[in-house]
């Protein structure tokens, strides 16, 4: 590529000299009065030629409609993950805190009261945020809760609030097209989500 550029410049310089314009290896001011461009003389296989450094130019094809759609879907997925990922981590942290506290409670009645109080506090603090989530964000959150806790949302509700509560909330989730039993699959259908989370954790997204 560089050799072709040298040949073009060389022939162009000869052409300018032949038409009476000055000069092949020096400086020249064009008809528009622009700043003269200096060409340096180099030796290529015994032939002296003018040379100028040209910046590298990247040429990209125009993305297809399908590519633009895929990119928009990717950007939307990144945005949704950034919205719900902190809540999935919060669930993991809260779950660890609750389990540690339950170890010190022997009475079933006190355990139930403690769990009701925790649930009430969590709803009070985060209900608005959760209600403002889209259905797509809710589905991702269910997946990420399984990722962070190694338990599906259904299992967590069943273990801490009982089978009836789990059955009830699973029914509500189904109405909105979600499934509290969804499991996270980082090597299959959730591989892209895992990649994005790794980029977020590394501070690159």
Could you please describe the fold and organization of this structure?
Strand 1 and strand 2 (47-51) form a beta hairpin. The chain has a two-stranded antiparallel ribbon with strand order 1-2. The protein is built from seven helices and two strands; from the N terminus they run H-E-E-H-H-H-H-H-H. It has 205 residues and is mostly helical. Helix 2 packs across helix 4 and helix 2 (65-102) crosses helix 7. It has helices spanning 2-18, 65-102, 108-131, 135-149, 153-161, 163-175, 191-201; strands at 40-44, 47-51.
User: Which secondary-structure class do the elements indicate?
Assistant: mainly alpha
Major sheet characteristics: 2 strands, antiparallel
Mean of the pLDDT scores?
A: 78
Count every beta strand, where a strand is a DSSP E run of 2 or more residues.
2
Helix content: 55-70%
Q: Largest sheet, order of strands side by side?
A: 1-2
Instruction: Determine the strand fraction and express it as a percent band.
Output: under 5%
The poorly predicted ranges are 1-28
- Report the C-alpha radius of gyration, rounded: 33 Å
- Coarse morphology: elongated
- How far apart the termini lie comes to 37 Å
Query: What is the number of helical segments per DSSP (H or I, 4+ residues)?
Result: 7
The helix/strand order is: HEEHHHHHH
